[in-house]
Amino acid sequence: MSAVNAFHQLQTYLDSQVLGQPSLTEHLLIAILADGHLLVEGPPGLAKTRAVQALASGIEGDFQRVQFTPDLLPADLTGTDVYRPETGEFLFQQGPLFHNLILADEINRAPAKVQSALLEAMAERQISVGRNTYKLPALYTVMATQNPLEQEGTYPLPEAQLDRFLLHLSLGYPDAETEREILRLTRSETLAGQIEMAEPVAQETIFAARRETMTIYMAPEVEAYLVALIMASREPGAYCETLASWLAIGASPRATIALDRCARAKAWLAGRDFVTPDDIASLLHNVLRHRIILSYAAEADGINADQVIDRILETVPAP
């Protein structure tokens, strides 16, 4: 089976397990293809955790769920050196971060020192404990969730860590018909048990798919459009006075790289060998939402990041 067929089969499986969230299932695959991390934000009960668990059952690799709480310690994630009295030596015991797919559930409930431990794993694919540094698996992705409604007992994620997330999805509730389909799915699972994917996607297939996505063609005009969208967040005064009053800090070069990789992955999933301006525009919200910082004036006026990104898309002409 070719890599693209394997991913289409995986996408079909995810859509059958997570109803009413096609954007979530698509971006889960884009994150895997673009070798990045995903932050999913939404009210409880929208199948955020279920989607990541379904993805874990559909690919070859180890899966580990970590429930983030205020009393979590860095060693609870990274692992620690354990003293062996029989040998008089310290032996490193790996923590839950040493797996291929990590589900960081309610990530914003952990304090800053725990976030810093996760930051090294996300950014450099390694973990430092004492004087030693340990490499993480070649296939390594963090899928984090957070609840935007309940703020008590939560810690805002630092901007440096937010920038390490490839994409930031914001989910909404499904419609009435999808709600009925969800009821039917849960009833059938209660009677027959959880449905599993017939053949998980092998890691070699994932690496081959990543190489294929990087060969997707991007025309110079489309590339210039991509860069212009990022520059509009950094130098908004050159594009629109309203944007200049709304934006305090724009996106970093990491956003440019993320948008490029995600657009190629989206085109590859669609069966095309070239990137279109629509591919880039459709991903811009999820790439920039967590990377731009609004001005005090924008926050006072009730402007949110999505409205700012809408204005960027309106201001920058597509080729």
UniProtKB/TrEMBL annotation:
This protein's source sits in the domain of life called Bacteria
SUPFAM superfamilies noted in UniProt:
P-loop containing nucleoside triphosphate hydrolases
The answer to keyword ATP-binding applying to this record is yes
Q: Which GO terms describe its molecular function?
A: ATP binding; ATP hydrolysis activity
Which residue ranges does the record assign to the ATPase AAA-3 domain?
37-167
Q: Which UniProt keywords apply?
A: ATP-binding, Nucleotide-binding
Where does the ChlI/MoxR AAA lid domain lie? Answer: 247-312
For this chain, the family text in UniProt reads: Belongs to the MoxR family.
Name this polypeptide is given: AAA family ATPase
Species this protein is from = Aliidiomarina haloalkalitolerans
